[in-house]
Formate-dependent phosphoribosylglycinamide formyltransferase (Dokdonia ponticola), 387 residues
Amino acid sequence: MSKILLLGSGELGKEFVIAAQRLGQIVIAVDSYANAPAMQVAHGFEVINMLDGDALDHIVAKHQPDYIVPEIEAIRTERFYAYEKDGYTVIPSAKAANYTMNRKSIRDLAAKELGLKTADYRYAASAKALSAAIQEIGMPCVVKPLMSSSGKGQSTIKTEADIQKAWDYSQEGSRGDVAEVIVEGFVNFNYEITLLTVTQRNGKTLFCPPIGHRQERGDYQESWQPATMQSKHLQTAQDMAAKVTTALGGAGLWGVEFFIADDGVYFSELSPRPHDTGMVTLGNTQNFNEFELHLRAVLGLPISEITQERIGASAVILANEHSDNPTFSGIEEVANATKSDFRLFGKPSSRPYRRMGVVVTYDNLDGDIKAVTERAKELASKVKVNP
Ligand SMILES: Nc1ncnc2c1ncn2[C@@H]1O[C@H](COP(=O)(O)OP(=O)(O)OP(=O)(O)O)[C@@H](O)[C@H]1O
Ligand SMILES: [Mg+2]
């Protein structure tokens, strides 16, 4: 039996803990607030600010975990290198967690070192530098804080008049002490995918069937698996995912994001851990869902193959209002629908757009993926989060 220190305790962490519990592992779940979803199912918990390196050092020393498993980006990941030196196993690796928390590190690695095709990009550390960068990149373009996730501080610039606004917004949405932004040429993609990729300590790299998804305000609304795509594009995406995960090193499941446009496949970014769009696998679309795959890779258990068992979709249940006692209505209708399931995450409070649950739908392998996705959307829209 091994001990896992899970850094981040949201809904993805909760499913990971449930997978770990089923294999008899011990998990200590960590987050900045008590009663977070993953804490509700773990053996123990810690409430700390994970951007505070000393607080992080303290709980690592206290619990002496076999595995340190980050579930979010906002962690003082610089400390991970020291943990590795001290003999701890960081998942997938200290480098992976550290590089992916800053868009600059991961983008330079992917585009410059590995030569992957990405959107054109520049960095800017002031509104003036942003204007100059946009001169070079052209409009439309997308501005993102170097340290942010879920679309925070991100905006699309279409005209000169948007530039100052985008800069100000990026500074509100930036996490930590970094003011710099990345500005990317707008990729006029036909669709985007997440390619869940599994790297193993003693085995080959495996890929899940591609997941299609739709984003709004920087957060995913629906995802479906498999995404329909040309096999040459899938092959290109797999090659790129193998390159970038190999360069970052270690074992685990990764969510590698791509845009597919008329002129080919663009690498966008990646999560070195389960991906929110991968919640579609909770509909048992695969022999193992993404959390089970992550756990097996963490523990070094061999994964011989990943098979698609059925097609599926997921659609998010969002709150509209602030509440410290959110309740749900419309659940009976979802429960009553065939070939569907749902999760309510147990978050103790709600705020506008906070993800509170997810609906999954599925069908046989020869089913219609568009219809399955529409069904997920429709069912999710029946659930209301009440303040
Ligand atoms: N250069 C671009 N061109 C076109 N669309 C883009 C570009 N960059 C981002 N987007 C759109 O915005 C979404 C969010 O961007 P990105 O994944 O970089 O942000 P994020 O905040 O890290 O999101 P998350 O952490 O939720 O994955 C993308 O999935 C895509 O739909
Ligand atoms: Mg993303």
